[in-house]
Amino acid sequence: MLNKDEHHTSLLQHKPLRQQKLRLAPFLLLLGGMVILSALLLLGWQVYTTNNASSSTNSNTGQRSAQDDSPTQNPWDEYPDVYWQTLRAQVAQRLHMSEQQIQDNLHATLLANVTADGKKNGISSANAAKWMNDLASAHGISQTQLHTIKITAIREAHKVLVNRHILTQQQADENMRMMNQDDLNFHMVEAFSGGDDSNGQKK
């Protein structure tokens, strides 16, 4: 059992510890509050950014759907007859055939599905490509040579539009760069279809 002096000494030793704990308490409370506040702010930011991303995605999806529903308008859809005339002449010359022979072949094969109103039933790019490949193959022309013929003919037809000041050289170059393989295939059908509706579009 402690005597009076020892008990007093013990109290004096423990008093600084209690004072130190009391001084740390506000700091610990403040630190805990900051941690909780930071967590709440982070959670709120995540919710905000997630909602914004979702809204942006929905908006873009709606815009794409609206664009997909609308018909695609290409610059060459409004080209004058002289373009298609030049294209026909260039292709026929390089295939060593007459324009009429190619037109007759087109109508007897690919366009044999023409309905009474003159509309063609679902001509795909693959069908158009097969028609041209078969035609070229029958005349000993490879697919690589056929591709070169298409590109050269289209370039020459654009040159006519530039020379007649219908297009600038820059416009012609840009329009040709826009063309993909599907466009090349449908170009050939359009040129030799004799003014019929081609792939759902008219010249």
Commentary on this structure:
- With 203 residues, the protein is mostly helical.
- The chain folds into two domains: 1-70; 75-192, no CATH class.
- It has seven helices and no strands.
- Helix 2 (81-95) packs antiparallel against helix 5 and helix 5 (143-163) runs antiparallel to helix 6 (169-178).
- The longest helix has 66 residues, at 4-69.
- The protein is elongated.
- The model is unreliable at 59-70, 115-119 and 195-203 (pLDDT under 50).
Keywords summarizing the entry:
7 helices, 0% strand, elongated, mainly alpha, 203 residues, disordered C terminus
Task: Give the helices and strands, then pairings.
Layout: H1 4-69, H2 81-95, H3 99-108, H4 125-137, H5 143-163, H6 169-178, H7 181-192
Keywords: Membrane, Transmembrane, Transmembrane helix
Protein name: SurA N-terminal domain-containing protein
Biased composition (Polar residues): 62-75
What is this entry, summarized?
It contains seven helices and no strands.
How far do the termini sit from each other? 114 Å
How do the SSEs run, as a string of H and E?
HHHHHHH
Q: Tell me the strand percentage band.
A: under 5%
Summarize the main sheet: none
How much helical structure, as a percent, in the residues?
over 70%
- Apparent shape: elongated
Structural class: mainly alpha
Overall number of domains: 2
Q: What is the helix tally?
A: 7
Mean pLDDT: 76
Protein name: SurA N-terminal domain-containing protein
Keywords: Membrane, Transmembrane, Transmembrane helix
Organism: Ktedonobacter robiniae
